[in-house]
Amino acid sequence: MGRPKRIQFPGACYYIELRGNNKQDIFLSNQDRRHFLNLLRAYRERYDLKVYAYCLMSGYVLLLLETVKPNLARFMQGFNTVYTKYFNTQHNTSGHVFQGRYAAYVVDKENRLPEMATHVHLECLRAGLTSKPWRYQWSSCSAYVEGEAAEPMVDSGPVLKRFGKTRFKQSVRYMHIIKERMKAGAESAIQPTRGMYIGDDAFAAKLDAQPGRPEPAPAPAAAADVMKIVADVAASHGMEKEKVLGRGQWRDVAKARREAMHRIWRDARLGVTEIARLFNRTPSAVSQAIRMLEQGT
Questions:
Q1: Which of 4, 32, 123, 227 is a plausible cystine mate for 27, CB 3.0–4.6 Å?
Q2: What one-character DSSP code corresponds to residue 207?
Q3: What is the pTM (predicted TM-score) of this model?
Q4: What domains appear along the chain, each with residue ranges and CATH number?
């Protein structure tokens, strides 16, 4: 609710981190992983996407993709909803499967695409799942080192064309780069420019200058600031902050709690999922409380 809009434009390339809610697994079986990939293939066609790389872990997924049309938010919303319904039905569960706000960084496609493809493919190595990333079944690395037939969903051409004129030379060179990065330690840190771009300052400035570009989100408040808001709201209602954070359902306590949730969301810029954890509530309950105050009901 009320968060800055996603940066969307035709031809935008994104590095996406999609994580399980409360650090829970989003795949409990290989059938789940196969369903996820089948769904990605279907949505690739429906939303006109280019999938450059992916890596499926137990509790999260890394994606590198391009949206030919400015439709990242629509794609992710539809995809997450459909997979969540499948997961809950398959495993007799309910509620959220994915963390509320997925991370999506805009990538400088011209200069950083090969680097980000190898970063995605090395995730299984960093997690200690394999010593040979090109043999990890649930990533797109094989599409780069074995040929397009290994995974036709993956558009490896824009990356591999930078490494030679023939497919064989391209694949050999890509394998060499993977091994070189393995020797270097396969560092996992991503350092986004201005918190939202994978590119240099010139790339960030170019996108910031686009007409209609949304303002970047303010940094989340520190925990001490959040608790100060809770204490201030509690004091204004003549009660201890423990009551506001507790489970009591008295009318005056519930009113103070809704006000605290709204102020933390509005002033501290904390997300609904984080607020839900703080108050030991569900994200939907927090959203409803915020909506009531926003609408003056």
A1: 32
A2: H
A3: 0.70
A4: 12-208 (3.30.70.1290), 223-294 (1.10.1750.10)
